[in-house]
From TrEMBL, chains A, B, C:
This protein's record includes keyword Transferase: yes
Catalytic activity as recorded in UniProt: RX + glutathione = an S-substituted glutathione + a halide anion + H(+)
UniProt keywords, alphabetically: Acetylation, Endoplasmic reticulum, Membrane, Transferase, Transmembrane, Transmembrane helix
Membrane topology: Multi-pass membrane protein
Location within or outside the cell: Endoplasmic reticulum membrane
PANTHER family: MICROSOMAL GLUTATHIONE S-TRANSFERASE 1
Its job: Conjugation of reduced glutathione to a wide number of exogenous and endogenous hydrophobic electrophiles.
Subunit-level organization: Homotrimer; The trimer binds only one molecule of glutathione.
InterPro entries listed in its UniProt record: MAPEG-like_dom_sf (IPR023352), Membr-assoc_MAPEG (IPR001129), MGST1-like (IPR040162)
Annotated protein name in UniProt: Microsomal glutathione S-transferase 1
């Protein structure tokens, strides 16, 4: 099916050209967090360390005081994502609603997704200063989206 | 007021038939997190355990090193929600913008809300393997929304 | 450029009058969380306490068991924001999509932003009962947005 057919189905696609780029970015980021969850569960099973009592009982282990180191690392990746992804989601939705072009959205959303994949990888591997640089780059992309949204909304003069 | 009158007020309702289902789901999930906060505050007051110094001073208690067990359980529910709800919100908004039907949205959003209410309940009660199964079911619903959004956006051929 | 010119560029601005207010609120909240991150990094460098091993190595310090007190305070502000901002974002986007008026959105979004800035400030300063009162006021604004969205969606009779 080509895009011209689709716009006849969905009025939003006709007026919001950046919507497909947002869908692709969201699904890619959802795949990343799903993968983090899978890694965390596997790491917890492998270490055999369960701080939640019913988890320990289910796997017939003693309840632990704290998570194993790699499980904590996955939790840090998750925490960093919960601090950053919702702001990206909100800014990206608004940017799309303001009529952003498909090209600009593909470039900005694509950069953000790649930077966050790389950030998670180096966080899991424990590589500095790469983690800090990738974090700041992701933030910079969000600030570009914020800036362009302010312009599109007519809020910057 | 019937829906036909409303669409004359809001142009979005005419072109985005799944929007009311999203509003209902959001409000239901907001009610759930509000309830978690209330439970957490009540549990903290009842245990009399306050790790933040100004909270301990306000209630004339000694500052504690860690939260009471049930307060930690509420914090786990919150953490799990902060990891999962924002992705659902973003996927659901995009799905609605792509012109999802009211029926499909009611079914998917309704299932997700029920699964997350059940997940929070069994997490608070400490029931496994139910917590894991409900978590995975909620993720599965989100993946269905992601898949349908990719199709509606014309990104899957 | 005046708003009338802009609506000819973006079809959303013509039908979604509250969209500029949402952009302004999002950018203000993004500035707040960016500031929290900067404060947290500065506090961690100043205390010289690094619980993540590669951070300790990078700065040639011994790995610590826990964060310094003010870094923990910043983490608490972040955690509180991750619990509250995504729900505001989702409710606000839906409220805008339902055709909320620019005036109502400016008042509600503006109040929420001010209350969350004040909440972060008193949390960092350790002032109770102000933190609790500002938290509850922010929640109340979200409930007003939720209620108005239910009305606009025709879900409350």
């Amino acid at each position: 099916m080509n895009p011209t057919d689709l716009t006849s189905l969905s009025p939003s696609l006709a007026t919001l050209p950046a919507l497909p780029a947002l869908v692709a970015a969201l699904v890619a980021l959802f795949a990343k967090t799903t993968l983090t969850s899978v890694l965390q569960v596997l790491a917890r099973l492998r270490a055999g360390v369960f701080p939640i009592p019913e988890d320990a009982r289910l796997l017939r282990k003693k309840q632990a005081d704290a998570e194993a180191p790699f499980v904590r690392r996955c939790a840090n990746v998750w925490r960093n994502d919960t601090e950053n992804l919702p702001l990206f989601f909100a800014l990206a939705v608004v940017y799309v609603l303001l009529g952003a072009s498909a090209e600009a959205a593909r470039l900005l959303f694509g950069s953000y997704v790649l930077l966050r994949y790389a950030h998670s990888a180096v966080f899991l591997l424990g590589l500095q200063p790469w983690r800090a640089l990738l974090y700041l780059s992701g933030m910079a992309v969000c600030w570009v989206i914020a800036w362009k949204s302010l312009l599109l909304a007519g809020l910057m003069g």
